[in-house]
Specification:
heterodimer, A: about 450 residues, two-stranded antiparallel sheet, flat, B: about 425 residues, mainly alpha, two-stranded antiparallel ribbon
Chain lengths: ~450, ~425
């Protein structure tokens, strides 16, 4: 056979062999050269710089370059953040720039139990800055800006229980007073005009929420939600509160950790367990047990905790039953009772309120203010409705309705709103039928409240 | 003249006791040894000792069948490596993809190789099919091997389609949802077929389990078997087709009709014809090195291309599959986009009649088009009618696929890809 053609073959083999070999080397190099290794080298260099003795130097030099990860099977997470953020638990790195910074205040949330992404968001499995911080295509949970970090507290903890998350509590407050529940359902309470908000935090970004509150129709064409006039701080707070609504449930170990003993929780317990049946506050309540108004002055917290564990052990002969409170609950109740005076309990216990006051609570709880305005004073736009393109105020319902009529009106709602101009789209807001949502007794209270709104001195105005 | 060093070392090895026990022949030096090298090696024996010059012309076959075979081998290798990490569970599959990307050594590279080789294989098997058609190579005696080849093409698409679901991301989930619903449009058997494929009415864990089993064992086993049949028949049907084949004096006698007044050697019976020693000897060359070396070069080229693509372009991975949040539009894998485009006009015609008719036409082609003219030549004038019909169908398929891929936006509406798309509107 022809020697030349064989030579040509060998030439091709050499060239293509080198090409494939070169590509394999390139592929290996690209795979091996990872961003996190640079950060680990910088950490080793810093440790070496700090080392004084020969022993310490040898120790620094022997730090391996390897992936660090926190396995969190219960949370369905693997957090590899500590591959770059190597010093989160080393307080001697306090004040260092990222990624070698110390993370203070993590005693309540140890890293090996909580990892990082459960609070901070981002992509725990990723090992490059861009992917891990999550601001990349096809990753829906980028890191939560520090401005909104308290939203993560709200994933597990009750907003009002957590003294370290004031912004979250403020957001919950703004949500309540703005009457969002008039249209939106959250945790099973609220109206049906807008979508449910139970998992809104997983669907929406802070930017989207901001745009949504200021001009709803800009991000949701056709949205009938009235633009919200909120102060900047309130706007941030309610965005934060929305981000906290992820619908995540805390599994196993985490569920047992989520209750923070606080006066707010104590108050809830005080109401739920019916303490007022035997004890009195501000003269209201049962006479079997002692009045509790000044109990904070008479008893120490230690005494009280022991009292909740076993009443007879501190007060022999007491008829108070053992309620079987957990330690957390006992602490929460103690907290509440120690500060009873500050909480003005008498004005917030439903059984001690007048129907009108209870009705005011109902008005707030179900978000009536969202459409009818704060204190039912109106002013919320409802484009193309015959009532001056506004949702009507409720100040003068006592003049137009009997109590029974008003009650029926609330229970049955009004789906069709009279239009101003038949050519334009119908008004977006309407009165839902609340009969299925609000218990009848509360509707009676609500009617009492609404009837009380009639401006004073106008009784004979007509 | 001194041989290069590697060759000398190889020679020393193959002549050693151990080397000879493995390779028998070593590097062949004479024509006898060249024949022996081909016949005595398991890997080489499926090919003839001598091969017709025409079969070696790159411009005739374009190496398309061989490229498809190499891609298949690369897929088996890379797929096996991926299996070491992959878990066919809706909860863990996506995490396995992320781990491959972020912590497994060369994990992303291997996944990229697998993805690229898979797309390329679908493409090259299609091209191979076109080559065989345009050179008239499906004609007698290769009718049945064409049918085997069409089956292999369908298996290739099936392999790619079943693999598409495995990453369990949005792309996978909705492509399979769309793809299987096209199958559901078939009359009578459609809904049942879809139910059997998915193991339910929607894409879920059962579908993933089934697609995984199909992808890693059922379809590859069938494909390997048929591939063996396909290659074996290439030889049994007289090697690759060539123009003078029907003109030469080989007179094929069907096995059952051999003259009874003669005795036959096994070789004659095997070929079903009289051996024609000395016929056209000058047109045939030894497979070693002419064929084997060319095949090796092609393998290196395919490897280089796949590696190059895999190093610089990553396989896509979208969000974790979300059954309540379909992308708009949800698109099937690219090779089904022509079908999806047709389905958008009419589910029955586009999803059932047209594809059913095309597959039947492909299978029956060699039995309908029996003319003997034009074998072994590209675009032979004698076959103008068949070529025109096939080309029109092919062009239509390409046009519909391009429309489905690039010109379809939200709600399958018409978009012009060179224009800026308005940002997708998020609904509640």
């Amino acid at each position: 056979m022809d020697r030349n053609s064989v030579r040509k073959f060998y030439g091709w083999f050499t060239f293509l062999g080198l090409l494939v070999g070169g590509l394999v080397v390139l592929g290996y190099y690209k795979d091996n050269e990872r961003e996190w290794k640079g950060y680990q080298r910088a950490f080793i260099a810093e440790e070496t710089r700090r080392a004084v003795t020969a022993d310490q130097k040898a120790q620094a030099a022997s730090i391996p370059i390897e992936i660090h990860q926190i396995l969190l099977p219960e949370l369905h997470r693997v957090d590899r953040c500590t591959t770059c953020h190597l010093t989160v638990e080393d307080s001697s790195y306090g004040g260092y720039p990222q990624p070698l910074a110390y993370h203070p205040l993590h005693e309540q949330h140890p890293f090996d139990k909580f990892g990082c992404t459960v609070c901070h968001g981002g992509q725990g499995r990723a090992t490059t800055t861009a992917d891990a911080h999550g601001d990349v295509p096809h990753w829906d949970e980028p890191m939560l800006p520090m401005k909104y970090i308290e939203a993560s507290c709200g994933k597990c903890h009750e907003a009002e229980d957590n003294p370290s998350a004031p912004e979250l509590a403020r957001g919950a407050q703004v949500f309540q007073t703005s009457g969002c529940r008039g249209c939106h359902k959250l945790a099973g309470i609220g109206g049906i005009i807008g979508p449910e908000l139970d998992k809104v935090g997983t669907r929406r970004s802070p930017e989207w929420l901001r745009a949504h509150f200021l001009t709803p129709a800009a991000v949701t064409p056709g949205s009938g939600m009235p633009p919200q006039k909120l102060a900047d701080a309130d706007l941030d707070a309610i965005i934060l509160f929305m981000l906290s609504q992820t619908g995540e449930t805390a599994p196993g170990y985490y569920a047992s950790m989520r209750v923070i003993p606080s006066a707010a929780q104590g108050q809830r317990l005080f109401q739920q367990k019916g303490c007022i049946g035997c004890h009195s506050v501000a003269g209201q309540g049962g006479k079997v047990g002692p009045a509790l108004d000044d109990v904070g002055l008479r008893r120490t917290p230690e005494w009280m905790v022991q009292h909740f564990r076993d009443p007879q052990s501190v007060t022999p002969g007491s008829v108070m039953p053992k309620f079987g409170f957990t330690e957390t609950e006992a602490k929460a109740l103690t907290d509440f009772l120690m500060h009873l005076r500050e909480y003005k309990i008498a004005s917030s216990l439903p059984s001690l309120l007048s129907p009108m006051e209870r009705g005011h609570e109902v008005f707030r709880k179900y978000g009536c203010a969202g459409c009818h305005g704060q204190e039912a004073k109106g002013g919320v736009p409802n484009p193309n409705s015959k009532t001056a393109e506004l949702v009507p105020d409720l100040l003068k319902v006592a003049e137009g309705y009997t109590k029974a009529e008003l009650k029926a009106r609330i229970m049955n709602g009004q789906r069709e709103i009279a239009v101003l101009d038949p050519k334009r789209p119908p008004p977006p807001l309407y009165m839902p039928a609340w009969g299925n949502t609000i218990p009848e007794a509360q509707i009676n209270d609500l009617v009492e409240y609404l009837f009380s709104l009639k401006p004073k001195g106008e009784d004979l105005g007509f | 003249m001194d041989a290069p060093l590697p060759k000398r070392l190889w020679k020393i090895f193959t002549r050693s006791y151990v080397g000879r026990s493995i390779f028998r022949v070593g590097i062949p030096e004479s024509n006898l040894e060249r024949s022996e090298a081909m016949v005595s090696s398991f890997l080489l024996h499926i090919q003839p000792a001598k091969v017709h010059r025409h079969s070696l012309k790159p411009g005739y076959t374009l190496g398309l069948g061989l490229i498809s075979l190499y891609l298949f081998l690369i897929l088996i290798g890379s797929g096996t490596l991926l299996m070491f990490y992959y878990v066919p569970s809706t909860e863990r599959a996506y995490d396995a993809m992320k781990d491959l990307q972020f912590v497994v050594s060369a994990g992303l590279l291997i996944r990229n190789i697998h993805r690229w080789a898979a797309h390329l294989m679908v493409l090259f098997v299609m091209l191979h099919l076109c080559r065989v058609f345009y050179t008239g190579s499906y004609k007698n005696p290769r009718e049945f091997n064409w049918v085997v080849g069409v089956t292999l093409f369908l298996l290739t698409v099936g392999l790619s389609f079943t693999g598409y679901l495995l990453p369990w991301d949005q792309l996978a989930y909705w492509a399979i949802t769309v793809g299987t619903s096209i199958a559901g449009y078939a009359p009578i058997i459609g809904p049942k077929l879809k139910y059997i494929m998915l193991g339910g009415t929607v894409v879920g864990q059962e579908a993933l389990t089934r697609f995984y089993a199909l992808h890693i064992i059922v379809l590859p086993a069938i494909a390997c078997t048929l591939l063996g049949v396909h290659l074996w028949r290439v030889r049994k049907d007289g090697g690759l087709s060539r123009p003078d084949e029907n003109g030469d004096s080989i007179q094929r006698i069907p096995l059952g009709q051999l003259p009874q007044n003669k005795t036959y050697g096994l070789m004659e019976l095997a070929h079903g014809t009289t051996p024609h020693v000395g016929k056209n000897p000058e047109e045939e060359v030894f497979s070693w090195p002419h064929l084997v070396f060319r095949e090796l070069i092609l393998f290196l080229i395919v490897s280089a291309v796949v590696l190059f693509l895999a190093i610089f372009w990553n396989a896509p991975l979208e969000q974790y599959a979300n059954p309540i949040h379909p992308p708009n539009p949800a698109k099937a894998p690219w090779y089904f986009l022509g079908l999806q485009e047709l389905v958008s006009y009419s589910a029955f015609w586009g999803g059932v009649v047209v594809p059913g008719f095309l597959v039947m036409a492909l299978v029956l082609l060699p039995y309908l088009d029996r003319g003997r003219a034009g074998v072994g030549r590209w675009f032979a004038r004698e076959r103008a009618l068949a070529i025109s019909v096939f080309s029109i169908c092919l062009a239509a398929a390409v046009v519909f696929t391009i429309i489905g891929t690039y010109f379809r936006g939200p709600n399958w509406g018409w978009v012009e890809p060179w224009k800026e798309q308005p940002a997708a509107v998020e609904g509640h």
